[in-house]
Amino acid sequence: MVRFIIRRLLQAVPLFLIISIGLFYLANHLGDPLLSFSGNGARILPEDRLRLTRLMGLDKPVYVQYIIWLVGNDWIKVDTDGDGVPDEFGTRKGILRDDFGNSFTEKRPAMDVISERVKNTLLLMITVEVVVLIFSILIGIYSALHQYSVMDNLITTLSFIGYSMPIFWAAMMLMYIFGLNFKRWGLPYFPLVGMYELDVGPTILQIIWHMVLPVASLSIVSIAGYSRYVRSQMLEVINQDYIRTAYAKGMPVRRVILGHALKNASLPLITIIGMDLPMLLGGAVVTESIFGWPGMGLLFYNAALSADIPVLMGIMVIISILVIVFQIITDITYTFLDPRIRYD
Question: Which residue(s) pair with 102 in the sheet?
Fold first, then answer.
Protein backbone atom coordinates (compact mmCIF):
# COMPACT_ATOMS: atom_id res chain seq x y z
CA MET A 1 0.00 0.00 0.00
CA VAL A 2 2.83 2.40 0.86
CA ARG A 3 4.50 1.77 -2.50
CA PHE A 4 1.18 2.41 -4.24
CA ILE A 5 0.71 5.74 -2.45
CA ILE A 6 4.27 6.85 -3.23
CA ARG A 7 3.84 5.87 -6.88
CA ARG A 8 0.58 7.80 -7.14
CA LEU A 9 2.11 10.87 -5.51
CA LEU A 10 5.00 10.79 -7.97
CA GLN A 11 2.55 10.49 -10.86
CA ALA A 12 0.63 13.46 -9.46
CA VAL A 13 3.56 15.86 -9.96
CA PRO A 14 3.57 15.89 -13.80
CA LEU A 15 -0.23 15.69 -13.76
CA PHE A 16 -0.41 18.85 -11.66
CA LEU A 17 2.04 20.64 -13.96
CA ILE A 18 -0.04 19.77 -17.03
CA ILE A 19 -3.26 20.91 -15.32
CA SER A 20 -1.69 24.14 -14.07
CA ILE A 21 -0.34 25.01 -17.54
CA GLY A 22 -3.79 24.61 -19.08
CA LEU A 23 -5.48 26.59 -16.30
CA PHE A 24 -2.90 29.38 -16.46
CA TYR A 25 -3.27 29.72 -20.23
CA LEU A 26 -7.06 29.90 -20.02
CA ALA A 27 -7.03 32.32 -17.07
CA ASN A 28 -4.71 34.69 -18.93
CA HIS A 29 -7.14 34.87 -21.86
CA LEU A 30 -10.24 35.79 -19.87
CA GLY A 31 -9.87 39.52 -20.40
CA ASP A 32 -7.82 42.59 -19.56
CA PRO A 33 -6.81 42.46 -15.87
CA LEU A 34 -5.89 46.15 -15.93
CA LEU A 35 -9.58 47.03 -16.11
CA SER A 36 -9.90 46.03 -12.45
CA PHE A 37 -7.66 48.94 -11.45
CA SER A 38 -10.12 51.58 -12.57
CA GLY A 39 -13.35 49.87 -13.60
CA ASN A 40 -12.93 51.46 -17.04
CA GLY A 41 -9.95 50.83 -19.26
CA ALA A 42 -10.30 54.23 -20.97
CA ARG A 43 -9.47 56.02 -17.72
CA ILE A 44 -6.03 54.45 -17.42
CA LEU A 45 -3.39 56.79 -18.80
CA PRO A 46 -1.00 55.24 -21.33
CA GLU A 47 2.01 55.72 -19.04
CA ASP A 48 0.12 54.12 -16.15
CA ARG A 49 -0.93 51.21 -18.32
CA LEU A 50 2.68 50.67 -19.38
CA ARG A 51 3.90 50.82 -15.79
CA LEU A 52 1.24 48.39 -14.56
CA THR A 53 1.92 46.05 -17.46
CA ARG A 54 5.60 45.90 -16.53
CA LEU A 55 4.86 45.64 -12.82
CA MET A 56 2.48 42.72 -13.27
CA GLY A 57 4.74 41.00 -15.80
CA LEU A 58 2.08 41.13 -18.52
CA ASP A 59 4.62 42.34 -21.07
CA LYS A 60 6.36 38.96 -21.01
CA PRO A 61 5.38 35.85 -23.04
CA VAL A 62 2.82 33.56 -21.44
CA TYR A 63 5.35 30.82 -20.75
CA VAL A 64 7.58 33.28 -18.88
CA GLN A 65 4.58 34.49 -16.87
CA TYR A 66 3.83 30.87 -15.99
CA ILE A 67 7.37 30.22 -14.79
CA ILE A 68 7.27 33.38 -12.68
CA TRP A 69 3.89 32.33 -11.26
CA LEU A 70 5.27 28.87 -10.45
CA VAL A 71 8.78 29.52 -9.09
CA GLY A 72 8.92 33.30 -8.64
CA ASN A 73 10.84 36.07 -10.37
CA ASP A 74 13.77 36.51 -8.01
CA TRP A 75 15.98 35.92 -11.00
CA ILE A 76 14.32 38.67 -13.08
CA LYS A 77 15.13 42.35 -12.62
CA VAL A 78 11.84 44.26 -12.61
CA ASP A 79 12.09 47.89 -13.76
CA THR A 80 8.58 49.37 -13.81
CA ASP A 81 9.47 53.04 -14.19
CA GLY A 82 12.15 52.66 -16.83
CA ASP A 83 14.87 54.38 -14.81
CA GLY A 84 17.22 51.42 -15.08
CA VAL A 85 16.94 50.57 -11.37
CA PRO A 86 15.25 47.28 -10.47
CA ASP A 87 12.16 47.67 -8.30
CA GLU A 88 11.57 45.41 -5.31
CA PHE A 89 7.79 45.86 -5.42
CA GLY A 90 7.39 43.57 -8.40
CA THR A 91 9.22 40.55 -6.98
CA ARG A 92 7.32 37.32 -6.28
CA LYS A 93 8.25 34.00 -4.73
CA GLY A 94 5.91 31.81 -6.78
CA ILE A 95 3.25 29.34 -5.66
CA LEU A 96 5.85 26.70 -4.80
CA ARG A 97 6.82 29.06 -1.98
CA ASP A 98 3.23 29.85 -1.06
CA ASP A 99 2.99 33.14 -2.95
CA PHE A 100 -0.03 33.34 -5.26
CA GLY A 101 0.41 37.06 -5.82
CA ASN A 102 -1.86 39.95 -4.92
CA SER A 103 -5.48 40.19 -5.94
CA PHE A 104 -5.91 42.72 -8.75
CA THR A 105 -9.21 43.97 -7.35
CA GLU A 106 -8.54 43.97 -3.59
CA LYS A 107 -4.81 44.78 -3.76
CA ARG A 108 -3.83 42.24 -1.09
CA PRO A 109 -2.56 38.64 -1.10
CA ALA A 110 -4.85 36.37 -3.09
CA MET A 111 -4.67 33.61 -0.47
CA ASP A 112 -5.91 36.03 2.19
CA VAL A 113 -8.91 36.82 0.00
CA ILE A 114 -9.58 33.13 -0.60
CA SER A 115 -9.12 32.05 3.02
CA GLU A 116 -11.80 34.52 4.14
CA ARG A 117 -14.37 32.72 1.99
CA VAL A 118 -13.37 29.11 2.71
CA LYS A 119 -15.30 28.73 5.96
CA ASN A 120 -18.52 30.06 4.39
CA THR A 121 -18.30 27.65 1.49
CA LEU A 122 -17.42 24.67 3.69
CA LEU A 123 -20.34 25.46 5.98
CA LEU A 124 -22.75 25.42 3.06
CA MET A 125 -21.29 22.58 1.01
CA ILE A 126 -20.62 20.14 3.87
CA THR A 127 -24.22 20.61 4.95
CA VAL A 128 -25.30 19.87 1.38
CA GLU A 129 -23.14 16.75 1.23
CA VAL A 130 -24.50 15.40 4.52
CA VAL A 131 -28.10 16.03 3.44
CA VAL A 132 -27.47 14.46 0.03
CA LEU A 133 -25.84 11.32 1.44
CA ILE A 134 -28.50 10.71 4.09
CA PHE A 135 -31.46 11.12 1.77
CA SER A 136 -29.80 9.36 -1.18
CA ILE A 137 -28.95 6.25 0.84
CA LEU A 138 -32.37 6.08 2.52
CA ILE A 139 -34.28 6.64 -0.73
CA GLY A 140 -32.05 4.27 -2.71
CA ILE A 141 -32.36 1.46 -0.17
CA TYR A 142 -36.11 1.87 0.11
CA SER A 143 -36.56 1.82 -3.67
CA ALA A 144 -34.40 -1.28 -4.01
CA LEU A 145 -36.26 -3.18 -1.30
CA HIS A 146 -39.65 -2.18 -2.80
CA GLN A 147 -38.82 -2.59 -6.46
CA TYR A 148 -41.62 -1.67 -8.90
CA SER A 149 -43.98 -0.68 -6.10
CA VAL A 150 -46.11 2.44 -6.30
CA MET A 151 -43.65 4.37 -4.14
CA ASP A 152 -40.70 3.12 -6.17
CA ASN A 153 -42.31 4.29 -9.40
CA LEU A 154 -43.16 7.65 -7.80
CA ILE A 155 -39.60 8.07 -6.52
CA THR A 156 -38.23 7.13 -9.94
CA THR A 157 -40.40 9.74 -11.63
CA LEU A 158 -39.45 12.45 -9.14
CA SER A 159 -35.78 11.49 -9.46
CA PHE A 160 -35.80 11.95 -13.22
CA ILE A 161 -37.57 15.28 -12.84
CA GLY A 162 -35.12 16.44 -10.17
CA TYR A 163 -32.07 15.27 -12.11
CA SER A 164 -33.21 17.12 -15.22
CA MET A 165 -33.60 20.45 -13.38
CA PRO A 166 -30.89 23.04 -13.99
CA ILE A 167 -29.66 24.25 -10.63
CA PHE A 168 -30.36 27.90 -11.45
CA TRP A 169 -33.97 27.06 -12.34
CA ALA A 170 -34.47 25.06 -9.14
CA ALA A 171 -32.97 27.91 -7.11
CA MET A 172 -35.21 30.53 -8.68
CA MET A 173 -38.33 28.39 -8.27
CA LEU A 174 -37.56 27.85 -4.59
CA MET A 175 -37.00 31.57 -4.17
CA TYR A 176 -40.25 32.36 -5.95
CA ILE A 177 -42.35 29.88 -3.96
CA PHE A 178 -40.82 29.84 -0.48
CA GLY A 179 -39.44 33.35 -0.47
CA LEU A 180 -41.66 35.71 -2.47
CA ASN A 181 -45.02 33.90 -2.42
CA PHE A 182 -44.82 32.77 1.20
CA LYS A 183 -44.12 36.37 2.20
CA ARG A 184 -47.05 37.61 0.12
CA TRP A 185 -49.36 34.97 1.62
CA GLY A 186 -48.39 35.94 5.16
CA LEU A 187 -46.59 32.65 5.84
CA PRO A 188 -43.11 32.21 7.39
CA TYR A 189 -40.80 32.78 4.44
CA PHE A 190 -37.16 32.06 3.80
CA PRO A 191 -34.62 34.83 3.14
CA LEU A 192 -33.28 35.13 -0.38
CA VAL A 193 -29.84 36.73 -0.06
CA GLY A 194 -26.83 36.54 2.23
CA MET A 195 -25.95 34.59 5.37
CA TYR A 196 -27.85 36.68 7.93
CA GLU A 197 -29.82 39.86 8.40
CA LEU A 198 -27.57 42.84 9.04
CA ASP A 199 -29.74 44.18 11.85
CA VAL A 200 -29.63 40.80 13.67
CA GLY A 201 -26.09 39.59 13.06
CA PRO A 202 -24.54 36.18 12.34
CA THR A 203 -26.41 34.12 14.91
CA ILE A 204 -26.74 30.34 14.53
CA LEU A 205 -30.46 30.53 13.83
CA GLN A 206 -29.96 33.27 11.24
CA ILE A 207 -27.31 31.30 9.36
CA ILE A 208 -29.39 28.09 9.43
CA TRP A 209 -32.47 29.97 8.22
CA HIS A 210 -30.53 31.54 5.34
CA MET A 211 -29.01 28.16 4.39
CA VAL A 212 -32.31 26.40 3.78
CA LEU A 213 -32.93 27.50 0.19
CA PRO A 214 -29.29 27.23 -1.04
CA VAL A 215 -28.97 23.75 0.51
CA ALA A 216 -32.28 22.65 -1.01
CA SER A 217 -31.30 23.98 -4.45
CA LEU A 218 -28.00 22.10 -4.45
CA SER A 219 -29.43 18.93 -2.93
CA ILE A 220 -32.30 18.31 -5.35
CA VAL A 221 -30.16 17.34 -8.33
CA SER A 222 -27.59 15.40 -6.31
CA ILE A 223 -30.17 13.39 -4.35
CA ALA A 224 -31.94 12.50 -7.58
CA GLY A 225 -28.72 11.19 -9.13
CA TYR A 226 -27.14 9.55 -6.07
CA SER A 227 -30.33 7.71 -5.08
CA ARG A 228 -30.46 6.06 -8.50
CA TYR A 229 -26.89 4.81 -8.09
CA VAL A 230 -27.68 3.39 -4.66
CA ARG A 231 -30.86 1.73 -5.94
CA SER A 232 -29.21 0.06 -8.93
CA GLN A 233 -26.25 -1.20 -6.93
CA MET A 234 -28.46 -2.44 -4.10
CA LEU A 235 -30.63 -4.37 -6.57
CA GLU A 236 -27.53 -6.05 -7.93
CA VAL A 237 -26.12 -6.91 -4.49
CA ILE A 238 -29.26 -8.12 -2.68
CA ASN A 239 -29.68 -10.88 -5.26
CA GLN A 240 -26.22 -12.31 -4.60
CA ASP A 241 -25.79 -15.73 -2.98
CA TYR A 242 -24.06 -14.42 0.14
CA ILE A 243 -27.05 -12.17 0.90
CA ARG A 244 -29.44 -15.12 0.64
CA THR A 245 -27.07 -17.12 2.86
CA ALA A 246 -27.11 -14.35 5.48
CA TYR A 247 -30.91 -14.38 5.48
CA ALA A 248 -30.91 -18.19 5.74
CA LYS A 249 -28.70 -17.98 8.84
CA GLY A 250 -31.34 -15.84 10.51
CA MET A 251 -29.40 -12.59 10.57
CA PRO A 252 -31.52 -9.47 11.21
CA VAL A 253 -32.64 -7.65 8.06
CA ARG A 254 -31.07 -4.38 9.18
CA ARG A 255 -27.68 -6.03 9.66
CA VAL A 256 -27.85 -7.76 6.29
CA ILE A 257 -28.82 -4.59 4.44
CA LEU A 258 -26.54 -2.11 6.21
CA GLY A 259 -23.66 -4.39 7.16
CA HIS A 260 -23.35 -6.48 4.00
CA ALA A 261 -25.40 -5.23 1.06
CA LEU A 262 -24.86 -1.47 1.45
CA LYS A 263 -21.15 -1.87 2.11
CA ASN A 264 -20.57 -3.70 -1.15
CA ALA A 265 -23.02 -1.55 -3.09
CA SER A 266 -21.27 1.66 -2.06
CA LEU A 267 -18.15 1.32 -4.24
CA PRO A 268 -19.54 3.26 -7.24
CA LEU A 269 -20.98 5.84 -4.86
CA ILE A 270 -17.58 6.26 -3.19
CA THR A 271 -16.10 7.08 -6.60
CA ILE A 272 -18.65 9.83 -7.21
CA ILE A 273 -18.29 11.23 -3.70
CA GLY A 274 -14.51 11.21 -4.04
CA MET A 275 -14.79 13.41 -7.11
CA ASP A 276 -17.40 15.68 -5.54
CA LEU A 277 -15.66 16.37 -2.24
CA PRO A 278 -12.83 18.49 -3.73
CA MET A 279 -15.46 20.62 -5.44
CA LEU A 280 -16.82 21.55 -2.02
CA LEU A 281 -14.00 24.04 -1.65
CA GLY A 282 -14.86 25.66 -4.95
CA GLY A 283 -18.44 26.07 -3.87
CA ALA A 284 -21.39 26.22 -6.20
CA VAL A 285 -20.76 29.19 -8.47
CA VAL A 286 -24.32 29.50 -9.73
CA THR A 287 -26.06 28.91 -6.40
CA GLU A 288 -23.80 31.20 -4.39
CA SER A 289 -24.21 33.92 -7.02
CA ILE A 290 -28.01 33.64 -7.02
CA PHE A 291 -28.35 33.64 -3.24
CA GLY A 292 -25.48 36.07 -2.61
CA TRP A 293 -23.76 33.54 -0.35
CA PRO A 294 -20.29 34.99 0.41
CA GLY A 295 -18.31 31.87 -0.41
CA MET A 296 -15.65 30.79 -2.87
CA GLY A 297 -18.19 30.17 -5.63
CA LEU A 298 -19.26 33.81 -5.59
CA LEU A 299 -15.61 34.87 -5.26
CA PHE A 300 -14.70 32.78 -8.31
CA TYR A 301 -17.54 34.32 -10.31
CA ASN A 302 -16.51 37.88 -9.43
CA ALA A 303 -12.84 37.12 -10.07
CA ALA A 304 -13.68 35.73 -13.50
CA LEU A 305 -15.65 38.86 -14.39
CA SER A 306 -12.77 41.15 -13.40
CA ALA A 307 -10.01 38.86 -14.76
CA ASP A 308 -8.47 38.66 -11.28
CA ILE A 309 -5.93 36.03 -12.30
CA PRO A 310 -4.19 35.49 -8.91
CA VAL A 311 -7.50 34.73 -7.19
CA LEU A 312 -8.74 32.55 -10.07
CA MET A 313 -5.54 30.55 -10.19
CA GLY A 314 -5.44 30.23 -6.41
CA ILE A 315 -8.91 28.68 -6.32
CA MET A 316 -8.33 26.40 -9.30
CA VAL A 317 -4.93 25.20 -8.06
CA ILE A 318 -6.36 24.32 -4.65
CA ILE A 319 -9.21 22.39 -6.26
CA SER A 320 -6.82 20.61 -8.66
CA ILE A 321 -4.60 19.47 -5.80
CA LEU A 322 -7.61 18.27 -3.82
CA VAL A 323 -8.93 16.32 -6.83
CA ILE A 324 -5.61 14.48 -7.14
CA VAL A 325 -5.41 13.82 -3.38
CA PHE A 326 -9.01 12.60 -3.12
CA GLN A 327 -8.51 10.23 -6.04
CA ILE A 328 -5.78 8.55 -4.03
CA ILE A 329 -7.94 8.54 -0.89
CA THR A 330 -10.80 7.01 -2.90
CA ASP A 331 -8.57 4.19 -4.15
CA ILE A 332 -7.41 3.49 -0.59
CA THR A 333 -11.01 3.49 0.65
CA TYR A 334 -11.81 0.69 -1.83
CA THR A 335 -9.50 -1.67 0.06
CA PHE A 336 -11.46 -1.20 3.29
CA LEU A 337 -14.84 -1.73 1.64
CA ASP A 338 -13.81 -4.66 -0.56
CA PRO A 339 -11.04 -6.96 0.78
CA ARG A 340 -10.58 -8.41 -2.71
CA ILE A 341 -8.99 -5.12 -3.87
CA ARG A 342 -5.27 -4.94 -3.16
CA TYR A 343 -2.59 -2.62 -4.59
CA ASP A 344 0.51 -4.47 -3.38
Answer: 109
User: For residues 206 and 122, what is the distance between their CA atoms, to the nearest angstrom?
Assistant: 17
Q: Which residues contact 206 (CB under 8 A, 6 or more apart)?
A: 195, 196, 197, 200
Please return the burial class of 213, using the count of CB atoms within 10 Å of its CB with bins 0-12, 13-18 and 19+: buried
Average pLDDT on 284-298 reads 88
Phi and psi of 86, rounded to 5°? -60, 140
What's the CA gap between 287 and 293, in Å, rounded?
8
- Residue span of the structural domain in which 333 resides: 116-337
Rg of the chain taking only CA atoms, in angstroms: 25
Q: How far apart are CA 112 and CA 332, in angstroms?
A: 33
Using CA atoms, how far residue 270 sits from 133, 249, 262, 264, in Å, is 11, 29, 12, 11
Q: How far is it between the farthest Cα atoms of the chain?
A: 88
- In-domain check, residue 11: no
Mean pLDDT of 2-17: 82
pTM exceeds 0.70, yes or no: yes
> Across the strands, what pairs with 228?
none
**Residues 255-267: tens digit of each pLDDT:** 888 877 887 777 7
Q: Per the domain annotation, does 179 fall within a domain?
A: yes
Closest CA to 125 of 193, 224, 225, 218: 218
- Structural domain contains residue 86: no
Number of Cβ atoms within 10 Å of the Cβ of 40: 8
What's the CATH number where 253 sits? 1.10.3720.10
- Domains held by the chain: number: 1
Query: What per-residue string of b and e applies to 57-72 under the rule 16 or more CB within 10 Å gives b?
Result: bbebeeeebbbbbeeb
Is residue 254, in this structure, part of any structural domain at all?
yes
Tally the residues of the chain: 344
The pLDDT of residue 341 is: 65
Tell me what the mean pLDDT of segment 190-219 comes to: 89
- pLDDT per residue over 172-186, tens digit each? 999 999 989 998 998
Closest by CA to 314, choosing from 300, 331, 328, 294, is: 300
Q: How far is CA 277 from CA 247, 282, 283, 327, in A?
A: 35, 10, 10, 10
